[in-house]
Write a structure and sequence with these properties.
This protein has 112 residues and is an alpha+beta fold. The protein has one domain: Alpha-Beta Plaits (2-Layer Sandwich), CATH 3.30.70. It contains two helices and six strands; from the N terminus they run E-H-E-E-E-E-H-E. The strands form two sheets. A four-stranded antiparallel sheet has the order 2-5-1-6, covered by helices on one side. Strands 3-4 form a two-stranded antiparallel ribbon. Helix 1 packs antiparallel against helix 2. It is elongated. The model has no long low-confidence stretch (mean pLDDT 90).
Length: 112
């Protein structure tokens, strides 16, 4: 089992959610986050004063899936989140040791 964490632009969330649903992934966790990478923020003007906005709003999506689903999930996220511009985001893939469904006590892939 793997955990996929994807940091994407907020306006791409619905497209990514739909793409994941199309490949059969149902459970996702979404968090509003802020950060920067190569984009390094930008400068804005407010009441005549210039200031730097270095933490940009992003969305973090977390998915746990079987090893067989990882490639399809990564492809779905990449294709639906891509704008071709700087700041499109990153995808991280991490190993999952075990999952336990609290309600039933199921373990492993049955708990997904």
């Amino acid at each position: 089992m793997k955990k996929i964490e994807a940091i994407i632009k907020p306006f791409k969330l619905d497209e990514v959610k739909d793409a994941l649903h199309e490949i059969g992934l149902q459970g996702i966790t979404v968090t509003e986050v802020k950060g920067f990478g190569r984009q390094k923020g930008h400068t804005e003007l407010y009441r005549g004063a210039e200031y730097i906005v270095d933490f940009l709003p992003k969305v973090k999506i977390e998915i746990v899936c079987t090893d067989e689903q990882v490639e399809k999930a990564v492809e779905a996220i990449s294709e639906s989140a891509r704008t071709g511009r700087i700041g499109d985001g990153k995808i991280f893939i991490l190993p999952i040791e075990d999952i336990i469904r609290v309600r039933t006590g199921e373990h492993g892939e049955n708990a997904i």
